[in-house]
Design a protein that fits this description.
Layout: E1 3-11, E2 43-51, E3 54-61, H1 68-80, E4 90-94, H2 110-114, H3 118-143, E5 148-158, E6 162-164, E7 174-182, E8 189-196, H4 212-225, E9 229-233, E10 239-241, H5 247-267, E11 271-287, H6 295-309, H7 317-330, E12 337-348, E13 350-355, E14 358-359, H8 361-371, E15 375-378, E16 387-388, H9 391-396, H10 415-418, H11 440-453
Parallel strand pairs: 3-4, 8-9, 13-15, 14-16
Antiparallel strand pairs: 1-2, 1-5, 2-3, 5-7, 5-11, 6-10, 7-8, 11-12, 12-13
Helix pairs in contact: 1-3, 4-5, 6-7, 8-11
Length: 457
């Protein structure tokens, strides 16, 4: 069964002017400027796949993360303008390159992670508006393009990109590949979609814009096959690229991934992907490790943050985070949970589950084991506002878990501090398996599996 498709690419690399801010994201805990240096352009791609005349829109961008307000501005605009029929027909993805621009002023908060001034944050927000407008315009332009009849085929391969930085046993070396071909041809490629799960930090912490290994891989595929190549990040929260993290490693890993994708396509024997396409989108609330609706809990948290802030200079990131948490407590604005979008696209021959935030690799493994069918697990989908650890990672503590020493408060220099949360998420009691009801892991797995297995009507 043939689809119809259109694909378009735009450059979203901040350049001054017109972009007022060249502040970079991806690393804390101090200022990280860019002075106009660019290794690889930061790009955004939009692919529209029409199924029986109904548009399904994939939008991906070389950005570090997408805050919730940015995600919903883009989604709401796309839906309001009728560029899709239903909100579940629109999927947004970030590559998570750590050599991209800082976007937004919420999560991560540039004042916390970089100690920026109000003027700097204002410039960051102006740049964010320009990026949002460019992404929405990209969707408009792609939807308006002529449609090309295409067929889709799916396969998997592997590429050795990295290791589990949290010391856990899971390493994801699988690579997802979908090739779109002009209908009626065997070699008339139209576009390639590919995905891997590994943090794009191969370049390291410098002051140069770079799409990192995903961008290098896409360039390799495009040069080999002559068509656009769209990268989608996987469950990479605990997946780290091999060292050293230097500019040359971007090319090494990008070429390795790109070759794996090209070789898989050339080898053939890919499975057909057909319509009809069934899409669904929900948002769940992941509870925090303590119940911040209870006054006694809030009072205890206030005391802990007051103790942490005492004696620290305002330049210290722990003080900056503690002061922000105390302000939320005093204003009765402390969050009680973390919203998480979960999206599913079901084709004949392929199922895509797209998880928001920085999900860890165990979610990929457990969803595959529980589902059993052909499955592409995406992370960093729609919005990225924190880490979502599985129970085993949470029990071990550390950066990805969000705590160290005391699970009832954000850990010092942990992900929860970077993303401006007061505490880590809720986990099952230590040693309890499968994940307990009400834990973050259980909520994510049950919701994702529910979308994947619900009756098609």
């Amino acid at each position: 069964m043939a689809f119809e498709a259109a694909v378009r690419t735009v450059d979203i690399t901040p350049v001054h002017p017109p972009y007022p801010s060249l502040w970079m994201g991806g690393y804390g805990w101090g200022p990280r400027p860019n002075n106009g240096l660019i290794a690889r352009r930061l790009r955004a791609h939009c692919l529209v796949l029409w199924d029986d005349g109904v548009p399904n829109v994939l939008l991906r961008a070389d950005v570090v993360s997408i805050p919730r307000d940015v995600h919903h501005f883009i989604r709401d605009t796309v839906v309001r303008e009728g560029l899709v029929d239903f909100e579940s027909d629109f999927l947004l993805s970030s590559s998570h390159t750590h050599s991209g621009a800082c976007l937004g002023d919420t999560r991560p908060d540039p004042k916390i992670i970089m100690n920026l001034t109000d003027a700097d944050v204002h410039a960051v927000n102006q740049t964010t508006w320009l990026v949002m407008e460019a992404l929405v315009q990209l969707v408009r332009d792609t939807v308006a393009m002529p449609r090309t009849p295409v067929t889709a085929r799916y396969g998997r391969t592997t590429a050795d990109l990295g290791f589990n930085r949290a010391g856990l046993p899971t390493v994801l070396d699988e690579v997802e590949v979908v090739v779109l071909r002009r209908a009626g041809t065997q070699r008339g490629n139209f576009a390639v979609l590919f995905g891997a799960a590994c943090h794009p930090v191969a370049r390291g912490n410098d002051q140069v814009f770079d799409s990192d290994y995903p961008g290098a891989a896409a360039e390799h595929i495009e040069q080999a096959l002559g068509v656009p190549a769209l990268f989608f990040q996987g469950a990479a929260g605990d997946q780290e690229p091999h060292h050293p993290h230097v500019p040359e490693q971007v090319t090494t890993l990008g070429s390795r991934l790109g070759r794996a994708v090209v070789d898989r396509i050339v080898a053939g024997n890919l499975a057909a992907v057909t319509g009809p396409v069934r899409t669904s989108y929900v948002e769940v609330q992941l509870p925090l490790s303590v119940d911040t609706t209870q006054q006694a809990v809030v009072d205890e948290l206030r005391a802990k943050y007051q103790a942490r802030a005492a004696g620290l200079p305002t330049s210290d990131v722990r003080r900056r985070h503690a002061d922000q948490m105390l302000g939320l407590i005093n204003a009765n604005l402390l969050p009680t949970s973390m919203p998480m979008p979960i999206q599913c696209w079901r084709f004949g021959g392929l199922n895509v589950i797209a998880l928001g935030h920085e999900v860890l690799s165990a979610f990929d493994v457990r969803l595959r084991a529980a589902f059993g069918g052909p499955l592409w697990v995406m992370g960093y989908a729609n919005e990225v506002e924190g880490y979502v650890p599985d129970d085993q990672a949470w029990w071990a503590g550390g950066y990805e878990a969000g705590w160290s020493g005391d699970p009832a408060i954000a850990g010092e220099f942990a992900a929860t501090m970077a993303y401006s949360w007061p505490t880590p998420l809720k986990a099952s009691p230590v040693g309890v398996t499968p994940a307990a009801a009400g834990s973050a892991e259980r909520i994510v797995l049950d919701t994702a599996l529910g979308l994947l297995t619900s009756p098609i009507v």
